[in-house]
Design brief:
The complex is a heterodimer of chains A (242) and B (658). Chain A is mainly alpha-helical. Chain A is 60% helix and 4% strand. Chain A has a domain at 67-233. Chain A has a two-stranded parallel ribbon. In chain A, 42% of the residues are buried. Helix content of chain B is 48%, strand content 3%. Chain B has 25 helices and 3 strands. Chain B has helices spanning 2-27, 51-59, 65-71, 73-90, 96-109, 117-121, 153-156, 190-198, 210-216, 235-239, 252-262, 273-282, 365-374, 377-404, 406-413, 417-420, 426-430, 451-469, 474-481, 484-494, 497-516, 523-536, 546-563, 570-598, 627-646; strands at residues 351-355, 605-611, 618-625. In chain B, strand 2 (605-611) and strand 3 form a beta hairpin. In chain B, helix 11 (252-262) runs antiparallel to helix 12 (273-282). The two termini of chain B are 80 Å apart. Classes of the chains: A mainly alpha (242), B mainly alpha (658). The interface between A and B is large, with 105 and 86 residues. Strand 3 of chain A pairs parallel with strand 1 (351-355) of chain B.
Chain lengths: 242, 658
């Protein structure tokens, strides 16, 4: 017969082991996910115009897309490569020798070419969204106006005499507009090719930022030459990326 | 045992008591390896998710963003390409991953040396310069790519070739940190000059890892002066410019690195790499160590967020004076606006200011684009709203596709492994769309739209098969045509006139008897009577009416023939064949029902090995796919389409067929 001491020891050991096992088997606290993704998918965050006109808008869109499906063709989509867009070549520029006189002349000419951007206008992606939501033709007209605006400025820029050392910067700006024009054309088709339009709009927004950034770069070019333009030769650019 | 426990029992007890506790305590030690936090990463930023961020997280603090681009250039560019392709495949561009990466990527390529990555993304040749003048500063016709580490395809794809001319690119050495060259031609990079001047033997090219540079500069990572050797992970200290004050300059550079890191973090308000350059070259505490004399005439030098090196026009044109940038970039003698607000400094070009419909009316364009484009909640909201619309459109398109060309869409667009095992039109006729195939088996719908039709078709096919087995005869004709005239012909050829008349008379008798209220002769009695007469011979009949006897004999002969009990005759053959056909058709029907049941409404896909003689049925066939296989394939395909439409698909399910 084991002594009481041995019995106590085993009893304590038993309790310790049971307690240990209980502790091991305890329910673990649910880990808080370290990663949360903001999907912005809650209804409260939906664009109001999208929600308000839901049935009517969907009916219109379905009606517009019906010919596609009836003919077995897919709705048009944005091609990321923009393969159909041909960049304007350097040879299209009117390049002059780089000299103080040409740089001085280049500044006002550039300001004049860019002058159409001085007028405030709505952000094109915002307009596109509203056009999609409401299927309002007047909004599509605004998109078309934006495209024409870009085309006008691009035409203006091609007419400017560009100092040789600014040619690359100038050409980059011109082709930034080539991209914007191409995208704007797609966005104009929001009624008949909504997928192409919305995808292009997403790209347009980023391309627009790139364009404004390039404007800033070109603006800094004049510092190299120590040219400070007169106030009358300078313009205000309205940035509409929001 | 007792002695052992007496001597060691207490130790055993303590060991049992404490052992598990120690083990558990060790496993939950917050300082264990798994729990170590990235000291460069404020924990609230963990809420941000992107693949880029994951890469950054896993590599910091040993490297920086541009270093990562060097080391992972291939992977990252590949990621962009994959995402680009996926973008096209997804038909939707609001994947958070894509947008996150575009933001980060654009920010990386931001500035103009090299041109922004955006221009590359939009080019047919992904990484080709838009104007063919990508970063060719020295005009040698060769261009350094954005990535050169590891012999990337990016550089190799450069049509103008690859060189390591330090006058060109910003990234020249794959294994060195280019952070301090970010956006700056290396020939004009003050840090390159510093390294080259001070470590000509160790780093003759002027490239040094950022950690080495920090060590050489005597800079500490200890941001909060607690001398723990680590940068403080207190978010407030991490993001506060106070941590980069003049008084605590040694903590400034780590902050800058952190800011550089956050340059790829669109959810952080860091001013980014340009700010770092400004601080390095402008801070008098740090600059002297690097023998740099900032030229405050440079309008970008003290404008806070503007990269003072971004404008290549500021660099000297004399190639023999590549280190002569002090004249243009750094000249401390004539600051244009000492102590002024960054916003007060304007470029001298034709653009006087930038305005937009917000609370900021005058900004440097790059400051503006930095903040508005990459930190503006408004701009993000616009893009997110657009994504919501694209998702909405996806739903509309999905419904239309299902309503109209779902089967064709599946056949055309989906090429999962299982579907590849089926031919393209399988689902077309599975849905009963394609019935033009000359192979009758291919016209069999694989989906049970109407069980009755399916059963009838099985019975008809079985009849055709059975008909092929019969020799040409009036019986076959009767079975095929199944008209009363043909049956009458069989009857006529089976019964003699007497037998037919007797059967007809008997029918009259029956009618008469019925009319008279007499009981109808029991057929068993009649058969027994006939058998008796056969045994006892003619005349030993049970009746005394000779005419009736003769008539009875004809009647019974006819009846035997008609019922097939007599000698083989056409009518009996007809009856036997009809019974056999019924048995086979019943079996075919049962089989069809079981197949439909087993396939959950999908019938097996069969190949017809032998057509029936009329060409409209299948005499012999073999099952290619069971109904359940087709059911699973269709379910998988439909699920893929649904997943695809809901944006939660696996790309492996959706590789478009070429």
């Amino acid at each position: 017969m084991p002594s009481k001491k041995v019995i106590y020891i085993f009893a304590i050991l038993f309790l310790v082991v049971v307690g240990w096992l209980w502790w091991l088997g305890r329910p673990t606290t649910e880990a808080v996910p370290a990663i949360t993704i903001d999907t912005a998918s809650s209804t409260a965050n939906l664009p109001p115009t999208l929600v308000n006109n839901w049935p009517a808008r969907e009916a219109v869109i379905e009606n517009n897309l019906a010919p596609n499906y009836a003919s077995g063709t897919k709705p048009a989509e944005f091609s990321f490569s923009l393969g159909s867009t041909t960049p304007i070549k350097r040879s299209a520029l009117k390049i002059v020798s780089a000299a103080t006189s040409t740089v001085v002349a280049y500044g006002p000419a550039l300001a004049t070419a860019l002058a159409p951007y001085a007028a405030p206008r709505e952000n094109e992606l915002t307009v596109l969204g509203q056009a999609y939501d409401t299927q309002d033709a007047t909004l599509v007209a605004k998109l078309k106006a934006a495209r024409i605006l870009h085309q006008t400025v691009q035409k203006n820029l091609l007419a400017v005499k560009v100092p040789a050392d600014a040619a690359d910067l100038h050409l980059t700006l011109v082709n930034d507009l080539t991209v914007l024009i191409s995208l704007a054309k797609n966005m104009e088709q929001v009624s008949t090719q909504p997928l192409l339009a919305l995808q292009s709009g997403q790209v347009y927004q980023l391309a627009l930022v790139n364009f404004y950034s390039q404007l800033g770069t070109l603006n800094n070019y004049f510092t190299k030459w120590g040219v400070t333009l007169d106030q009358k030769d300078r313009i205000n650019i309205f940035v509409n990326i929001k | 045992m007792k002695e052992f426990l007496k001597n060691h029992g207490r130790k055993i007890f303590m060991a049992l008591l404490l052992g598990p506790t120690l083990v558990l305590a060790q496993s939950t030690n917050p300082t264990s390896q798994q729990e170590l936090k990235n000291p460069y990463l404020p924990q609230q930023d963990k809420a941000i998710y992107s693949p880029v961020r994951n890469i950054l997280d896993s590599n910091l603090p040993n490297t920086t963003v541009n270093d990562l681009f060097q080391q992972y250039g291939d992977a990252l560019s590949g990621y962009v390409q994959v995402k680009t392709q996926q973008w096209e495949n997804d038909r939707i561009s609001c994947s958070s991953d894509v947008n996150d990466f575009l933001y980060a990527y654009i920010k990386q390529g931001r500035g103009d040396t090299p041109p922004g990555v955006w221009s590359k993304l939009l080019q047919p040749n992904f990484f080709q310069s838009r104007n063919g003048a990508w970063n060719d500063y020295d005009g040698d016709g060769k261009i350094n790519g954005l990535f050169q580490g590891g012999g990337t395809s990016v550089v190799q794809s450069n049509p103008k070739g690859v060189d390591s001319d330090p006058n060109d690119g910003i990234v020249l050495k794959g294994n060195y940190d280019d952070w301090y060259g970010f956006g700056v031609p290396n020939a004009y990079n003050p840090l390159v000059k510093y390294v080259k001047d001070n470590f000509p033997n160790q780093y003759p090219d002027g490239f040094m890892s950022i950690s080495q540079l920090m060590f050489q500069l005597g800079l500490s990572l200890d941001d909060d002066n607690d001398n723990d050797g680590l940068m403080n992970n207190d978010p407030k200290e991490m993001v506060s410019t106070a941590g980069c004050s003049t008084a605590n300059m040694n903590d400034c550079l780590p902050y800058m690195f952190y800011a550089a890191y956050n340059d790829a973090d669109l959810n952080h308000n860091s001013t980014g790499a340009y700010d770092i350059f400004n601080r390095i070259v402008y801070d008098e505490n740090l600059v002297p160590q690097m023998n740099i004399t900032p030229n405050k005439d440079n309008p970008n030098m003290n404008t806070g967020n503007v990269n003072p090196f971004a404008d290549s026009s500021l660099y000297p044109t004399d190639p023999n004076n590549q280190w002569g940038y002090e004249d243009k970039l750094f000249n401390i003698n004539n600051p244009p606006n000492p102590g002024g607000s960054p916003n007060d400094v304007l470029p001298t070009g034709p653009i006087i200011q930038y305005t937009y419909d917000a609370d900021v009316s005058l900004r440097q364009i790059r400051t503006f684009t930095d903040q508005a484009a990459f930190n503006s909640e408004e701009m993000k909201k616009i893009m997110v709203d657009n994504c919501v619309r694209m998702a909405d459109l996806q739903g509309i398109m999905g419904r239309m596709e299902f309503q109209t060309l779902i089967a064709d869409r599946i056949a055309r667009d989906i090429s999962s492994e299982k579907l590849q095992n089926l031919n393209d039109s399988t689902f077309a006729y599975a849905y009963g769309i394609d019935d033009s195939n000359s192979d009758p088996s291919k016209n069999d719908p694989l989906i049970v739209a109407n069980l009755g039709d399916t059963v009838n078709k099985a019975r008809q096919n079985e009849a055709k098969k059975f008909n092929d087995e019969l020799p040409d005869s009036e019986v076959k004709t009767a079975l095929t045509i199944n008209q009363s005239g043909s049956l009458q012909g069989i009857m006529n050829s089976t019964l003699s006139d007497d037998e037919a008349a007797a059967l007809a008379d008997n029918q009259d008798d029956q009618n008469t008897n019925n009319t008279a209220g007499q009981s109808n002769p029991n057929i068993a009695t009649r058969i027994s009577s006939y058998l008796l007469s056969a045994v006892v011979g003619p005349g030993q009949n049970t009746t005394n009416n000779t005419n009736q006897q003769n008539n009875n004999e004809s009647y019974w002969q006819g009846l035997l023939k008609k019922t097939g009990l007599g000698p083989l005759n056409p009518y009996a053959s007809y009856m036997f064949s009809k019974d056999e056909l019924a048995l086979r058709q019943d079996a075919a029907e049962q089989n069809a029902r079981e197949e439909a049941l087993a396939g959950g409404g999908f019938l097996p896909k069969k190949d017809c090995l032998k057509k029936t003689s009329d060409g409209t049925g299948c005499a012999d066939s073999v099952n290619i796919f069971s109904g359940s296989t087709i059911m699973n394939s269709v379910n998988s395909a439909v699920k893929s389409v649904y997943d695809w439409l809901s944006g939660s698909h696996s790309t492996s399910d959706l590789t478009p067929q070429q």
